[in-house]
């Protein structure tokens, strides 16, 4: 255990810092880091080097080379730089490389050197050129801050949603500031810059001078400044060799340290651990590395070669040509267990486990000591926590074995933390492998989350590892395996050296019917890569027609889209394709396409009936559908034409169409309607009133109501209205007029073809019993009882029913008898029934 703490360095009395190697770098750097623009992404991210930058004098024919490596030095991409001079490099939160050029253009590249997009920082930046730039991260995304040749600042807090802000001018600023950085306060990005002994804070509205509290006197210039990973703390390096540390708001001083070195450092970054009270800053010069904090002494390391510092959530990564190291504060759990002569419960449990493996009785002694103090649960938790912060798998296993050993002597220790730590460490060890090159710590992993880690593995095209992690952690398929397979498929379609058939087959064999995978999204990616035939083949595997059709339309495969829409049975989808086809094809080709698809043709006809009547007529003409064409002209005669001549002409066209369709009934009916329209117009001209558009029956009724009986009778003869129907029409009309005298004359004009019971019913409907009785006596024997009952002659109805000896009539009369007034009649009926039964 003493050897284990050999690389621990105390900073004051309360904290230790250690530096251990992550990787032995195997990259073949042809130039020193000092001669390159360098950018390293946090959370164990990739490293970008732009060799031969423009500040270095080289032959004009030599082009700069942009190289991208993993954190372990494995090459990911290399490309010749063919654009303008670059001022700064930086990585976004999505691990996209932002290259800020001198003209203010920002070029965005992927992890594998693929160009994504570009944007400009504005015309002012273009005119004044870029002196310096910073890429920073906020809760909204990744931002870019620019210092122009006019000594003005422009920034965008989120390059994903570019909104440029021109910061206020600094009064009297004639040269570039000695140092500057970006701060994020109250969810707003600010610029902090140093001009001689003065500090200025720029926000969106004003430029204000600020003074760090408790700053040592004699400062004439600030040489370097650094903001912490969380933007909560700030460090300032002065020309007097003092390092001031405080809050980023510049309202509180944490400490101040005199490093006795006045030369400006190459880099200065914060080195702090989450939930730790210790604050430290790492300062790097050419060959010296210093860790300073709230202690009178510092920790110093010798740098054998050019190095670069990368601030992390819980420490600092330091890489050079040959090594990649991690410097951090020793976590509390590790310190408790491993510091010399520690009697912490975790330390005793670790010793007990080691003695147990040696089959020594000391194991029992250590265990009893922990149990007597009641600290066994704490000891197990300490070992589990410490295992998470260890980089070497052997030490992780040793601590987890100790925790497992201690758990055996606890009755109710929840296993969740132990199991989860084992899972997390297995994942971390897998991604820390040299060939993967993502040296995440446990704290970074928890902050990053497993979903983001999977996204980064997918971004590196490490699909097998990502799938293994999903299966090991048993993540839901939609969040895990399905999502990764979809990304793999989208990458697969970009491999243009493989035939469309082979790519489609490989994707289908791998994906099958995996839930959460959309073949249409993969097909869209294939179409975006210019592989239309591959996209069509992939769409054959898409079970949802609603996803197939829009992409087929986008690919201008409208006829195939129509077939797919019809197969789906979704009428809305069919209508969408039809309208697209209508705009895409000429009229003749469109109609020919519809003829081959009966369902589509039927739906389009329905659409035309409501929206495009002329197109509907053209469809009927093309198909020689005279029956529907006749119906169309009949509807058109009433919907469109107001003049009687136009309507008659349209009806004549309809009649001709019906004759062609060999529908003589419809043709005759149409011709009769034409005759009726002409007659109605003549009646309106001669008699006045409203006749047009009345039915034949209503026309006759209107004439009778107007007293034009002869005209009504002539109309009936012209249109061959049967006598029974004419008598009904006249009877109803005269009753409505209450012209009882004319009605009586009409009833005597000749024998009624409808009988006289209707006369009785109509008179009673008009509440005229007197007139009804006149006709009741003329009703035939078979309807006599009903007529007498209608006029209220119950006794006479009973006599007729008894005379007829009709049981049904007797029952009908009996049902109309009331107990008070018709008792004698009811008795009479009952006696008649009794006599009939005796016979």
UniProtKB/TrEMBL annotation:
Coiled coil: 349-376
GO BP: protein transport
Domain Vps16 C-terminal: 517-835
InterPro entries noted in UniProt: VPS16, Vps16_C, Vps16_C_sf, Vps16_N
Annotated Pfam families: Vps16_C, Vps16_N
Protein's membrane topology: Peripheral membrane protein
Transmembrane helix as UniProt keyword: no
Keywords: Coiled coil, Endosome, Lysosome, Membrane, Protein transport, Transport
All copies of domain Vps16 N-terminal, residue ranges: 4-420
Predominant place of localization: membrane
Subcellular location per the Swiss-Prot or TrEMBL entry: Late endosome membrane; Lysosome membrane
GO annotations of cellular component type: CORVET complex; early endosome; HOPS complex; late endosome membrane; lysosomal membrane
Functional summary from the UniProt entry: Plays a role in vesicle-mediated protein trafficking to lysosomal compartments including the endocytic membrane transport and autophagic pathways. Believed to act as a core component of the putative HOPS and CORVET endosomal tethering complexes.
Subunit comment: Core component of at least two putative endosomal tethering complexes, the homotypic fusion and vacuole protein sorting (HOPS) complex and the class C core vacuole/endosome tethering (CORVET) complex. Their common core is composed of the class C Vps proteins VPS11, VPS16, VPS18 and VPS33A, which in HOPS further associates with VPS39 and VPS41 and in CORVET with VPS8 and TGFBRAP1. Interacts with RAB5C. Interacts with STX17, MON1B. Associates with adapter protein complex 3 (AP-3) and clathrin:AP-3 complexes.
Family recorded in the similarity comment: Belongs to the VPS16 family.
The protein, known as: Vacuolar protein sorting-associated protein 16 homolog
